[in-house]
Amino acid sequence: MELDPSKEDEVPLFRRGRDEPADDAVVDDVDDVETPRPARPGGPYDVDDVDDELARLDLGAMRVPVPDGCEVRVDVQDEQVVAATIVDGRSALQIHAFAAPRSAGIWAEVREEIAESLTSSGGAAEESDGPFGRELRARIPVPDSGPAPALQPARFIGVDGPRWFLRGLFTGAASTDPHQATVLEDAFRNVVVVRGGEAMAPRELLPLKLPREALQHVEGQHMEADADAVEPAKPTLDMLERGPEITETR
């Protein structure tokens, strides 16, 4: 099991049948009992619920703040942006945004799936209470660490929103030290989700994109690569540290 946030297919945290319907056509639970959607005191926010002037990177379905001293990277799979990772020194927070049913939250079910996946692969997970409600404190096997795989700490958080679900994965010092996690928790709390009105299957990744600044940077890399016949580097947002060049795009 890989801790590298860019390798999305290493941890099967979500399972959905091939014929599962889109959320606009989802049938409620068999007993017609809706699961209450937990409150989101203080964020993360739906785009219709936030009105502030905090600078955020516009990644399409997510608008992500960049705390002082941090950087934001994008995780790319099959040439598609699938997640954002905020790096704060020795800590990192990877954030995914998913579609969710209209009628119910999915975090409780997802927690069980993550725990089962980790346990079956030699790791461990335990539920606990955190600043966003129930979360998972986990230990993830490190690949290629020998016959007795080493385990690294991690922490999974989740928030159910209106027709969306936001999942965060802490690694590094923030996964075990509450003080080290403060900056990244505040960043997660200030993420804005732009769900859109299109019908999507539950748990399908919401579409993300590179912000304008990163696209300009990548275009510059391609031009240099064409001139030097060198393969351009994987697009990241390493150059986008908080400063006057970062503004919220509306």
Question: What do these coordinates show?
Answer:
- This protein has a single domain (17-228), classed as Protein Transport Mog1p, Chain A.
- The protein is globular and about 45 Å long.
- The strands form 2 sheets. A 7-stranded antiparallel sheet has the order 4-5-6-10-9-8-7, sandwiched between helices. The chain has a 4-stranded mixed sheet with strand order 1-11-3-2.
- The model is unreliable at 1-35 and 232-250 (pLDDT under 50).
- The chain is of the alpha+beta class and 250 residues long.
- The chain has 3 helices and 11 strands.
Q: What order do the SSEs take from the amino end to the carboxyl end, as H and E? A: EEEEEEHEEEEHEH
Shape: globular
| Radius of gyration (Å) | 18 Å
Mean pLDDT: 78
Helical run tally: 3
- The CATH class, by name, is Alpha Beta
Q: Which CATH architecture?
A: 3-Layer(aba) Sandwich
Q: Kindly state the number of beta strands.
A: 11
Protein traits:
Protein Transport Mog1p, Chain A, 250 residues, four-stranded mixed sheet, seven-stranded antiparallel sheet, alpha+beta, 3 helices, disordered N terminus, disordered C terminus, 29% strand
Compose a concise summary of this entry.
This protein is of the alpha+beta class and 250 residues long. It has helices at residues 107-120, 178-189, 212-228; strands at residues 45-46, 56-58, 62-65, 71-77, 80-88, 91-99, 124-130, 133-141, 151-161, 164-172, 192-193. The longest helix has 17 residues, at 212-228.
